[in-house]
C-alpha cells in the first residue's frame, strides 16, 4: 500500500462561472513552493432511533476548511486570491475587497513513486495573518499560511477531484494535463 510522502506544484484558478449551464475557470497559475496542505471537510450526522435503538443514519457535507503553507505568497498571487490590487509593485488592500471563488490544485508523491493529483473546486480565501521576526545568529524561515473555506459547486455539487497514477483505470494524460485546466475541454 502506497502512502503520501510529498507535496508539490500548488496551483490556483479563478472560477468565473458556476451555474446550471456549466462551470468555467481561468487558466491555472502557480502559487509558490508548497510546504503543507491541510483539508478538513466538516460533516453533520444524525441518527434516527426507533424501537429502542438506532435504525437509520444520515450525513451531509458542510464547509471544507483548507489551510495552505507556502514558501512565499507573492503580491500578485495575494491580490488575485483576495481581491486586492497591485500597482507599481505595491499591494493595496481595501476593506471593500471581495475575494473571488477559486480552485486549488496540487500533486503529492506516494511512497511507491506514483503521484496523487488533487483539485479543490470552489472556495474563497481569507486575509492571512502576518508575522515578522528579527534575524538572529541562526536563520529561521518565515513562511506564509493562507486559510480558506471551500464548498460544493452549484453546477454539479462536486467539491474535489482526485486522480491516482497507480489506479488500474488511470490514463497518463490526466496527470500530464492536470494543471493546464481545472476542467478538461469538452469535445
From TrEMBL:
Which Pfam families does this entry report, sorted A to Z?
Phage_TTP_1
InterPro entries under this entry?
Answer: Maj_tail_phi13, Phage_TTP
Q: What is this protein called?
A: Phage tail protein
Q: Which organism is it from?
A: Polycladomyces zharkentensis
Amino acid at each position: 500500500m502506497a502512502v503520501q510522502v510529498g507535496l508539490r506544484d500548488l496551483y490556483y484558478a479563478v472560477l468565473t462561472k458556476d451555474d446550471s449551464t456549466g462551470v468555467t475557470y481561468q487558466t491555472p497559475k502557480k502559487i509558490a513552493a508548497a510546504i503543507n496542505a491541510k483539508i478538513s471537510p466538516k460533516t453533520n450526522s444524525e441518527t434516527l432511533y426507533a424501537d429502542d435503538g438506532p435504525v437509520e443514519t444520515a450525513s451531509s457535507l458542510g464547509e471544507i476548511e483548507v489551510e495552505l503553507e507556502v514558501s512565499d505568497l507573492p503580491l500578485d498571487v495575494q491580490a488575485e486570491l483576495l481581491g486586492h490590487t497591485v500597482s507599481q509593485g505595491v499591494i493595496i488592500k481595501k476593506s471593500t475587497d471581495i475575494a473571488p471563488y477559486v480552485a486549488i490544485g496540487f500533486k503529492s508523491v506516494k511512497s511507491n513513486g506514483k503521484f496523487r493529483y488533487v483539485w479543490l473546486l470552489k472556495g474563497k480565501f481569507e486575509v492571512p495573518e502576518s508575522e515578522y521576526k528579527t534575524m538572529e545568529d541562526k536563520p529561521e524561515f518565515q513562511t506564509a499560511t493562507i486559510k480558506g473555506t471551500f464548498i460544493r459547486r452549484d453546477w454539479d455539487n462536486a467539491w474535489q477531484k482526485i486522480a491516482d497514477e497507480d489506479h488500474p483505470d488511470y490514463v497518463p494524460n490526466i496527470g500530464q494535463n492536470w494543471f493546464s485546466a481545472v476542467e478538461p475541454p469538452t469535445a
